[in-house]
Amino acid sequence: MPEQATVSAFHPDGSVTVLRDDGFLVDAPAAAVAEGGWRTLRPGQRVTLRRDQDGHVRAVLRPV
Predict the structure, then answer these.
(1) pLDDT for 15-28, tens place per residue?
(2) Per 3-state DSSP, what percentage of the chain is helix, strand, and coil (rounded to 5)?
(3) What is 3-61's CATH number, 2.40.50.140, 2.160.10.10, 3.10.450.50, 3.40.1280.10?
């Protein structure tokens, strides 16, 4: 199930830290950012997270 979040930080390696709507900070790897088609993200930007069955962030997508 997709989760809504706000970008907290975009890191030099292409990964991001996001703040989910429930208040938890989550790190997403650069591969998940690339999977969503982003070249860069900025703090405050809204995104949707998609996770795999193990709970790892698989994709950072445009908000729905």
Answers:
(1) 999 999 999 999 99
(2) 10, 45, 45
(3) 2.40.50.140
CA distance 60 to 50: 7
- The model's pLDDT over 28-42, given as tens digits with 9 standing for 90+, comes to 999 999 999 998 899
| 20 touches 60 (CB < 8 A) | no
Residues 6+ positions from 50 with CB-CB distance below 8 Å: 2, 57, 58, 59, 61
Q: Could you tell me the residue ranges of all domains in the chain? A: 3-61
Between CA 63 and CA 24 the distance in angstroms is 18
